[in-house]
Specification:
Blueprint (H helix, E strand, L loop, with lengths): L1 H11 L7 H14 L22 H4 L1 H24 L2 H22 L3
Helix pairs in contact: 1-2, 1-5, 2-4, 4-5
Bound molecules: heme C.
């Protein structure tokens, strides 16, 4: 997810030239992948080490699911915008999607 999302981020930040077709295909992959991780968050998989899920994934499950949905919605918007081929719109949509990733990571992932 990070690799494909990051390729769009490189275009959004000007580190890579904007290629609308590549942005759209990467966005589609992120959108498909954005639905996959959540089946893996089963009880007993939290931890305390860096990068592991915090225990609050289960005590605040409604917020966690809401954050997941928010990210999936932002990624879906990014896919639509990427297909449109307008870099400014891609920048904005990428920023919103990245904020949705960060918001959940800040709250639910051990730093
Ligand atoms: C609903 C919460 C949530 C959202 C939204 C979310 N993540 Fe995560 N993510 C986690 C948690 C919790 C972990 C740590 C547990 C794990 O790695 O399974 C994690 C881990 C990761 C990892 C590390 C995986 C590994 O194997 O080490 C990557 C990469 C990642 N997220 C990318 C993203 C990207 C990109 C987005 C946005 C497009 C995103 N995440 C949105 C909760 C979220």
């Amino acid at each position: 997810m990070s690799a494909h999302f990051g390729r769009i981020g490189a275009m959004a930040s000007g580190r890579a030239p904007f290629d609308a077709a590549a942005a759209a295909s990467n966005a589609e992959i992120v959108a498909a992948m954005s639905k996959l991780p959540y089946a893996g968050f089963v009880e007993g998989t939290s931890g305390t080490e860096k990068g592991t899920p915090k225990a609050n994934v289960w005590t605040e499950r409604a917020k966690f699911d809401e954050d997941a949905k928010k990210m999936q919605d932002e990624v879906a918007k990014l896919t639509v915008v990427a297909k449109g081929g307008n870099l400014d719109q891609v920048k904005t949509a990428f920023g919103s999607a990245a904020a949705a990733c960060k918001s959940c990571h800040d709250h639910f992932r051990n730093p």
